[in-house]
Amino acid sequence: MSKFYRIFLYVLIFALQLVFDSYINLGPYIYLCLLPLLILILPPEMNVNKLMIVSFVTGLLLDVFSDGVLGLNAAACVMVAALRHSLFAIMVNREGREIHYIPSPRHTGFLRFTAYLAIATTVYLLVYVLFDSASLRPFGFIMLKIFLSLSVNIVVMLIIEYSLINRE
Length: 168
Prior knowledge:
Elements lengths: L2 H21 L11 H6 L7 H18 L6 H20 L13 H4 L1 H24 L5 H27 L3
C-alpha cells in the first residue's frame, strides 16, 4: 500500500468518524468509533512515541470538531496506541519476525484479525465510556454500552476493512 493511499485512508476514515459523531446517533447505548481502526492501520514499524503523538493529535482533533468532552477521544486513542505494539506482538506477530505490512484478515486470518480489532476497540471503549460516565452511570449501563458499541463497531470496521483497506 502506497504512502499516499495510507494518508488518503487516514483522512477518509477520520472524516467518516466526524460524520458519525455529528449526524448519526444510535441512542445512549451505542457509540460509533473508527479511531481504533485508524490507529491499527498506521505502519507497524512506527515507534510507540510517534504513534502516541499521532493518536493524541487525531483524538484531540476529533474532540475539537465534534461536540464531546475535550480530551476524551484523545485519552482513549493514546491508550490504544500505547498497547498496540504489545497487542500486535501477541495477536499478529507470534513468531517475532519483522513485519512491514498492515495487519489484515488476508495476512493474519479472519479470526485473529477480528480478535486484534476487538481487543483494541474494547480498550478504546473502556477508556472512553469510563471517562465519559465519570461514575455518574450505573455499572450495568456502562457494561451494556461497551458491549453493544463493541458489537456494532466491529461490524462497521470489518466492512471498512474489506471495502477500503484490504482491496488486494
